[in-house]
Design a protein that fits this description.
The complex is a heterodimer.
Chain A: H1 2-32, H2 39-59, H3 70-89, H4 99-121, H5 130-134, E1 138-140, E2 143-145, H6 147-169, H7 171-181, H8 183-188, H9 193-215, H10 226-240, H11 245-265, H12 273-284
Antiparallel strand pairs in A: 1-2
Helix pairs in contact in A: 1-6, 1-9, 1-10, 1-11, 2-3, 2-4, 2-9, 2-10, 3-9, 6-7, 10-11, 10-12
Chain B: H1 5-23, H2 27-50, H3 60-76, H4 82-104, H5 109-129, E1 139-140, H6 154-181, H7 183-193, H8 195-200, H9 205-231, E2 233-234, H10 236-239, H11 242-255, H12 262-280, H13 285-299, H14 303-317
Antiparallel strand pairs in B: 1-2
Helix pairs in contact in B: 1-6, 2-6, 2-9, 2-11, 2-12, 3-4, 3-9, 4-9, 6-7, 11-12
The chains are: A mainly alpha, B mainly alpha.
Amino acid sequence: MNVALTILVEGLGYASYLFIVSLGLTIIFGVLKILNVAHGAFYAWGAYLCAFLIGEFSVLGVSDIGTMIAIPIAALVVGVILGSAIERTIIRNLYGRDEVLIVLATFGLFLVLEDIILLVFGVDPYFAYQPTYAMPGVQIGGIYQDGYKLSMIVLSLVVGFVAWAVLTRTHWGKLVTAIIFDSELAIAMGINVRRVFYAVFVAGAVLGALGGAYIAPTISVAPGFGVEVIVLSFAVVVIGGMGCIPGAAIGALLVGLLRAYAVLEWPEIELFVVYAVMAAVLIFRPEGLFAPAKARKI
Amino acid sequence: MTTDRTFLGLSIGFALVALLGVLVLPDWLLSQTVIAFSRALAVLGLLVLWRTGLVSFGHALYFGIGAYTVALFGKELGISEVLITLPAAMLVSAIVGFGLGFIVRKYREIFFAMLNLAFSMVLLGILVKTEALGSTDGFSVAQPTLFGIGTEDAGTKLATLFLGICFIGWLAAVLVHRYLGSVLGNLTTAIRDNEIRVEYLGYSVAEAIHGKYVMSAALTGLGGGFMAISLGQVDPESMVNWTVSGELVFVTILSGPGSVAAPFIGSVIFELLRTYAFEWMPHAWQLIVGATLLLIIFFLPGGLWSVIQKAMRREGAGP
């Protein structure tokens, strides 16, 4: 019973940050049709900037809970500035190119951005545990649970809800949906597709950076940690269906719970269970588990 | 038969490299060339796929299988005869490629790339968790022998290995070149341009892709086998991780799809670039690779080969 509960909480915590990162990746894919490997760099930049800011804030004497303001600041700064710069210089010139070449270009971008992190922040790891001290722990079923992890689950629910509301209840959301369905027709209808592309790319970048910034206080932020998350969030997106937002949630849940189960109960399979599932999904349902069937276009 | 310029060029080129290697080049450059040509064999495999418009992000799977096959033959069976271990590396990779080929041949573009990635990550996960295979540390490869003769002298071993890979590289390049010139090989470009038309011409696209996939798996396995012998050590990080697949794809793009000679030139340049970059700017290696990749995609879509081709054409047009 306790083990099951631990798996559930661990898995949900893991799933929630994966969901935030993968949501960014999947909306960029859904709208721009670009599989953005550089997303892992947004994540890493968000984490580094957040850890750096938390350190600076605490030196200035900000309270532990107050340092949490660094999280949204880091996410917005990285997402808006870095995201805009990259969309304007690189991504913009890739629209319409061969899909695989675009992936390779973003892979090149990822490598460049990762190394710039090393040049800017140095090779030593950053620790910024202050926000986790500020959160009270909670007892569930006799087990002491980390409050910060639970807050992450809440955040992911909020992010998911906001994404759903924006996409289905606002004018902007309708434009985005139209473009996902058929971008050529959307242009014919007078939608400024380029502008929507830009906005969506920046929004996706902010989400990637937010995932990194929120996870930063719980880990040591060290070089090369953006790599794992990019491959994992690919798996999430593929499992749920590329460009499908509820799919990202379900994919993240599946991956999070599977990993928590493997770590606690069956460590031999920990490293590859996610990829095995991903391969299985690709084999049997290449569109993803929950993506709606595509309408045939002629 | 009319004279085949590529065949002639390849023969002269490889003979020249082999001659230079034995007579002039220093040992460190020899061992770099061996590593570069090992990778080039794998890149040649990727080139066959890329001509069809397919890119695999998981060929480290076959690279690792080749390397581990060679290493395991020495460790478990006590066989270190390269005339057995290298064909075995090729065969095992080809068999795995044949099996997985039934699945991957149905996919294109990103799905093809990602499915291969997933398979290679599964192998990585298994290797890292298997204590018997040395887990993350890997294990060392037994001293290789040729015709049953082993040598303790490092210089002799290196020279033999170098000549061996020059010969195998030449052979592989010539065979792939012949294949690409055949009817089946010419389908490569046709499939990339229009699959449905190829089907209407009476060829099975799936089977053609399957064949190419097995071929590329075998070549990559052979490359991995050579790499294991020349490094004397196998471990998951440097043989099976996705960064290895990334490197292979990078060299493919760097070389360009234009010719079977391109992977060999591209690999050598990649290896030299890496050596010097590590010396000058140890922290900026990824930055150099990434920037190069972007520059090539934007400004030199034909890769390095297109530069060589242009130079040759200018020469040919002269008086």
